[in-house]
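Please, structure for the following, as tokens.
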Amino acid sequence: MNNTAIDYADLAEYDRRQSAIERHLVAAFLGGLVVGLAGMLVSGRGPGWIDQLYDPYVYLALSLGVGVSASGFGWALLTTFLAAVSTLVAAIGASAVRGDLAFDIIGGSAAGLNWTLALLVGLGLLAYVTRRDDAWGDLAAGAVGAALIADIVDRATPGFIDGERSFWPMPALAVGLAAVGVVLALRRSTRSRIRSLALSAVFSGLFVTGLAGFVAGWIPLAV
């Protein structure tokens, strides 16, 4: 007698997993559209600090949320890229409706756009790695915090690449506190949180030192 057993529980679990992946893809795409459209609708229509906080930090928050909720590293790469591209397309479409067709609408310039897109995907992947309960998770969370802090310092410091006088002090302090909160939220234990915050401080310090050396001409890099 052929005793072929079908584990319907496994099939049901597989179906739930596939459905969750599909919902995650759709949510990433729609989230990017909403964030991109909303960004263009509020741009230039309120206090300057709103624009400073929205671009790029709301985009980065979307990428972190998409990455940390992905079901796998490959899916994190795909969904964060999808969210970033849909955000860009929505922003360009909304700016075109307003009569200002510009492909550098996010990031402020062509270089800023490329940097923002790379940062969105990179942070999404790092956010997924933070789900690990080991040193790699702490390292990823520290890198996420360092990227946010380094960007804050760059924008808040006169003479740096993206320096904005109006970004200091209130917008910079608000985003800085949010960056610390993100690192704490990404880790689950007190020890991991302390290690991640320490790594964020070290990484961001190294980045800012290198950036200062580049701006001052101590590090001769061709642009």
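The two ends are 74 Å apart (CA to CA). Residues 14 and 219 are 53 Å apart (CA to CA).
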